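User: Hi! I'm working on a homework problem where we have to compare a predicted structure to a textbook description. Could you give me the structure for the chain below?
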Amino acid sequence: MRTVVLAGVLAAASRSVISFRLSQPVSSILLGIAVFALWIAPDALFPHYRQSWLFDNSFVGTLGNSIEPGLRGDKLSLILRTFRAVALVPVIEELFWRAWLLRWLINPRFETVPLGAWAAGAFWITALLFASEHGPYWDVGLMAGVLYNWWMIRTKSLGDCILAHAVTNACLTAYVIAGGHWEYWQ
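Assistant: Happy to help. Predicted structure tokens:
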């Protein structure tokens, strides 16, 4: 029910502001794959990396997952979780982080600021806040935030950012389900 309501609200509220126009679809896909590789690299290269106090503490949170063991084999739960991760989250987050906040930090009358406008403060504040949203994965969240911000500035296309983010989430979802890496689903 949560997925259906969220999709409905998103469609109704954002239909007039979302543009899925792509200027660089192949590069957006490649960027999404690169962000996925960066996301899992620290844990793959250094198996106990996330047990450091930098990533497991009362400030950023602790490692865990949000899917109960009994639902890990439930096809409907996995399909709905995948749909949210690949189709809804990229749209919601890119609308908020890149289409709104990045511009609002430049000028509170954000609709007067074109997509992809550059201002160092807005760029770094948005990247840092995006990182903070990812709890114990703040380090890779920061890298992802920097890359997605850079992509918005380079392409000036919300559609390209949504596609890159969706590809990252699709790769991560496949990695979680195929490899049992449930800790990535916070």
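For your comparison, note the following. Residues 83-186 form one domain. The radius of gyration is 17 Å. Good luck with the assignment!
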